[in-house]
User: What shape does this take?
Amino acid sequence: MSESNRPKWSGSLGFVLAAAGSAVGLGNIWKFPYITGMNGGGAFVLVYLACIALVGVPVLLAELYIGKVGQANAVLAYEKVHKEKSFWRLPGALGLISAFLILSFYSVIGGWILNFEWCSLLNEFGTRPEGEIKSMLSDLFEDPTRQIFLHSIFMLLTVGIVLGGVQKGIEKWTKLLMPGLVLILIGLLVYSLFLPGFGQAAEFLFLPDFSKLSWEGLLEAVGHSFFTLSVAVGVMVTFGSYLSKDDNLPRMGFSIAIIDTVLALTAGLVIFTAVFSYGIEVDTGPTLIFQTLPLLFGKMPGGYFIAVTFFLLIASTALTSTISILEVVVAYCTETFKAPRRITTLIVGFAAFAVGLLSDLSTNLLSHVKIVGLNFFDFFDKLTSSLFLPLSGLLTSVFLGWVLGPRAVDEIIRDTGFEAYRKTLLICIRVIVPISVSIILIMGLDWLWPA
Ligand code: TRP
Assistant: This one.
């Protein structure tokens, strides 16, 4: 595809909303609250904020820059910026594979969320006995047909939006979904203000107690800063390639990171208010929103309405994330194979759905199949989050900081009004990111050698 007929954003608002839509997802509303709960609250939140600023944002800016200058898909952009076919395609290629795998299992989780939305609509949290509510997730895991059906609906929604293209699909829908989810979150926050646990939740999140912070928590915060900003999977390179020459990268990058962080903190506040108000343990882990919250919804005043809006919120955030991941692969395939965009979208969507079936079946019919001791779902998750993502992010930072060098950082910053940030960005991208990400990369590899 020639540069002139590549898609473009209609303006910076469309871009920022689409990129923030990608960033805001299950990572904010599901994972951030539960890892904060497991890591003791305030001190972890502080470390997380530092990681966003010192690790996540620099890589985010690097990717936007590579996309904007390369004006090509996630793999080719690296090459074009480097001006030759080279080793430096690798971070892009790793990102592309991760995007495809993440799409396959993220849409499976999308299906679970649709399941809980459906149960909310039928008022099952209000009417069924506690034991049944608690086992809803495991019941779903044991029912392949139901999982596959819901997963296919979620994938159809994703494909349907991306079929519309960049402006008429992704932009149009994120402009609708993002304000919608912000409104829902504000509504839930106002409701939380009236619950008795609000003060305790605020204290838990914002009063740091460093004695509760562990090394594992620190590493988890670095890793999560990547995941939550959707970096290292080619999304920001692809989205950056639809920008124009004079777009202000630091302003856009900061806006995306601020929206993502504020929404994660708000979601945390809402969820912990519910948890403290009803005297539940804060460290229940991944089942927090699928077991603990449904139980609470059944008890709260107005719980029916809260449950319906809460799962609608999560479904929307998951959808704005899956469309961005699909776009990465679609952009790559249309440009590489010179294929028509709509047909490519259908094929990639179907292929990701097909690979996702392995995740659907990993808790039932195929639960006995293990790769390095993990079922398919856990394997895809681990492979991307513990290996490909950090590796791709590490290579991107080395590429920008050491291969392209300070000149690239100058170009990111020049004439943007953020000149004072130049030095910090250079230090982060050359030293802080490579060191911290190398550490999580090495520490995170123990799963490859199961005992
Ligand atoms: N940022 C998303 C979230 O917080 C998760 C995610 C990681 C993602 N990588 C991505 C989403 C790539 C879209 C594209 O949930």
In short: The chain has a mean pLDDT of 92.
